[in-house]
Amino acid sequence: MRGFKGGMMGGGGFRMGRKFAAGDLQLVILALLAEQPRHGYEMIKLLEERSGGFYVPSPGVIYPALTYLEETGLADVESEGTKKLYRITESGRKLVEENRSMIEMTLGKLEKIGAKMAHVRRIFDPESRGGEREDDVFPEDKSEVAAARMLLKSALRLRYPWSKDEARRIAGILERAAADILSGGNRSGE
Questions:
Q1: Residue 108: other Cβ atoms inside 10 A
Q2: What angle do CA 174, 177, 180 make, to 5 degrees?
Q3: Residue among 97, 94, 75, 72 nearest 86 (CA)
Q4: What pLDDT does residue 33 have?
Q5: Helix ranges, 14-163 (H)
Q6: What's the longest Cα–Cα distance across the chain?
Q7: What is the CA radius of gyration of the chain?
Q8: pLDDT confidence of 189, banded at 50, 70, 90?
Q9: How many CB atoms lie within 10 A of CB 3?
Q10: Is-contact 15 21, C-beta < 8 A?
Q11: What is the dotted CATH code of the domain comprising 8-111?
C-alpha cells in the first residue's frame, strides 16, 4: 500500500460524516470499478443510491480521484465521445484484494446508512408511508423522543414557507441531527 494517498490505512476505521478521506474514496471507486467499468457520473449516482442520499460526492471530488487512479496505473480510461469510461487495471484489482475487508466494511456502512435514511424518510414523509399514519410508525413511543418529534414538526410548520437560504440552513440542521442519531453518539474525534 506504500505510496497510496491518505485514507484508512492507519487503522482508524471508516469516518462517519459526509466526506471520505481521499484514499478511502479511491479504494471505494476501485471496488466499484472491479464490479464493472463505469463513468464518473455513474459512480456519483451509485454512491448516492447505496447511501440512501446521505453521501453524494461532487464531480469535483470524483473526477480528481479518477485522474489520480489513472495516473498511478490503478485504472485505465477510454474516451467515448465526451464521456470517459474507467476500468480497473490488474494492479488496481490487487489493491482492492489487499484492502477487501476495509472496502466491504465501508460499503456496508454506506448501505446501512442508506437503509436508516430510508426509514427516517418514511417517518417524516407521509406520502412514502403509503397511508400509514405517523403514530403507526412508533405506536408505543410516549417518550421524550416523541415529544421532541412533535416539537420539531411544529417548528417546521411555523417556519414554512422558507427561502432557499432558510431551507439550506434547516436542511443542514436536520442532516447533522440525523448523522448524530445514526452514529449513536460515537462520532470520530470525540
A1: 12
A2: 150
A3: 75
A4: 96
A5: 22-35, 40-50, 59-71, 90-98, 100-124, 134-137, 144-159
A6: 59
A7: 20
A8: very low
A9: 5
A10: yes
A11: 1.10.10.10
Q: Which of 12-21, 70-79, 103-112, 171-180 has the lowest mean pLDDT?
A: 12-21
Element spanning 120, H or E = helix 100-124
Using CA atoms, how far apart are residues 165 and 151, in angstroms rounded to an integer? 22
Residue that has been written with the C-alpha cell 470499478 in this structure: 33
Calculate mean pLDDT across residues 71-77: 96
Q: Is the pLDDT of residue 11 over 70?
A: no
Strands 38-39 and 83-88: antiparallel
CB atoms closer than 10 angstroms to residue 88 = 24
Question: pLDDT tens digits for 153-164?
Answer: 888 888 878 888
Grid coordinates given for 60: 469535483
E strands in the chain: 38-39, 75-80, 83-88
Q: What does the angle CA 163 – CA 128 – CA 180 come to, to the nearest 5 degrees?
A: 65
Question: Which residue's C-alpha cell is 414554512?
Answer: 160
Domain-wise residue ranges, the chain: 8-111, 114-183
Assign 52 a pLDDT band (cuts: 50, 70, 90). confident
* Mean local confidence (pLDDT), 58-62: 92
The Cα–Cα gap between 104 and 97 comes to 11
